[in-house]
Amino acid sequence: MQHLTSELDKNAVLKAIRSCLPPDRMTVELHEPFFSGNEWRYVKECLDTNWVSSSGKFVDAFERKLAEFTGAKRAFAVVNGTAALHISLKMAGVDMNDEVLVPDLTFVATANAVTYCGAIPHFIDCEERTLGIDAKLLNSYLKNITELRENGCFNKITGRKIKVLIAMHTFGHPTDLEPLAATCKHYHLTLIEDAAEALGSYYKSKHVGNWGQFSILSFNGNKTITTGGGGAILTNDEALGVRAKHIATTAKLSHPWAFNHDEIGYNYRMPNINAALGVAQMEKLPEYLKRKRALALRYKEAFADLAGVTFFEEPAFAKSSYWLNAILLDKELKGELDPLLKYLTENGIKSRPVWTLMHKLAMYRDCPRMDISVAEDIESRLINIPSSAFL
Ligand SMILES: *Cc1c(COP(=O)(O)O)cnc(C)c1O
Questions:
Q1: Which of 47, 140, 212, 297 is deepest in the core (most CB within 10 A)?
Q2: Mean pLDDT across the chain
């Protein structure tokens, strides 16, 4: 039961978090890599055989494992999640002066990739239930500001074409994909899923990443599994997938000796040495997900009776990877956010607020956006707490 309270017992919050963590750790980071399998062996094999660069058996094996695990037809490993977003947007035809609908509450890479295409991010509010885009708010907003013409959806205010919507699964919690897919269909928008945080997350029993034309994953050092740096593009469209791989491989035409390229491509393929880590990490993924879920359950119980704070749980329709656990302060307690962050950090619990909202960043201040009240409210009350798989 939650009780209303006007003051936050910071020590009780600290104790609740500590009660879920191994007692022997003084300082607990937010999210650390966990290497407990064949990582050493596979990386050594790369060095022993000289297969360290942008092709090799681990790249193929990693891609196969990713496709198998997520249920996507094809997976292509690239240098990082941002590059995966960039390629996906290119493939969706995003060009100079197009607009792309992007959640305001996201990591900056989502918006940056749009800018790399010369396009303009257009920021959308989220819902508290999922921390993802609110389809209802989005629909009424688009109804007001867009005009559907024969050649697509246009922003009546800026005159620019809106081509794509990027849905993001915040902290691994699946966003409500079905209504978003319906909105995309109605407005002739291509759906791309930023599933960087959501490897191991399921929307209505199917792995996320299967609703968009393209989806992306990240294997950065702080994600559920890591390849040092890395990312992947998922797609169920075979032909588009082949083209995506082509432009991520400098658009080089396959030939035994000649170097020939048929368009401007990118040098974005993942090296074999990173993929070696990826294969070893994929072997451990089911165990890591189980551990992360168990930690989330412990947090949930520890916070169940604590006044003023709620542990953020996966939406009812979904199974979350619980990549990064989060707590929300009651609305009356938003003034306690910074003092609590300070208190937890000083006491060895690394914690952090949500990312600065996109429309508040200097480079994105003047981009089009809808009313962002829900994300602003969440920004004022949310704290991420330690979530590593080995905890
Ligand atoms: C991590 C992340 C990315 C980018 O991934 P990198 O591999 O760091 O480039 C993109 N979007 C979201 C939401 C992320 O959390």
A1: 212
A2: 96
